[in-house]
Predict the structure.
Amino acid sequence: MAFSNDKKIVDNISEDIVNKLTEMIYSKGMNNVTVKDILKEMDMTNRVFYNRFQNIEEVFGIVHQRLIDKTRKCIAEAKYDGKSDYCEFLTSIAMSVIEQTYENKLYFSGYTYENGDVNNSNRKWWIEKISELIRYGIDIGVFKETDAHMISYAIWCYCRSFNSYSVGDNLSIDEALLAFKMGFECIMRGLKSDKKTEAQI
């Protein structure tokens, strides 16, 4: 989400407000931050804030989109070298994603569920990216023939549900990553082809 251009000022102060809100969310939780808190922390007036943003929800949206973009880099920038174990490569991507999103979930609890458009757009993006990786695994013979879209949807659901429950159960990040890895490796084993390929040797 970009800054609003609806007759609003976009400057360094706008960026400072977004950064300050991000910092406050991670220290207090999203539900415990108000415009009044930001004004007090930054020693600014209502006018300074509202000359730049419609409301605090607009700033929440910007912070959340930046977190989404940062998490997407885990998969968008990952490059397979064609030699290492492909399943281990995918597991490392998944672990990076979970590590990023676990902390986000702690502080943005419920936000994506309350913003259906954001959630749906993000879900479609991830399922398509996961599908590309599954199809590639099939093409190189690491994975058996399967419905790439459906297994990608299942992986998306596993990741989303895992974060919700592990955060809700107050697992530490180390406990969450260990449990997630065990489950994800089971998915990888289920996808593996019986044929040996160079990526598996």
Notes: The chain has nine helices and no strands. The chain has two domains: 12-53, 75-200. The CA atoms of residues 102 and 163 lie 6 Å apart. The longest helix spans residues 116-139.
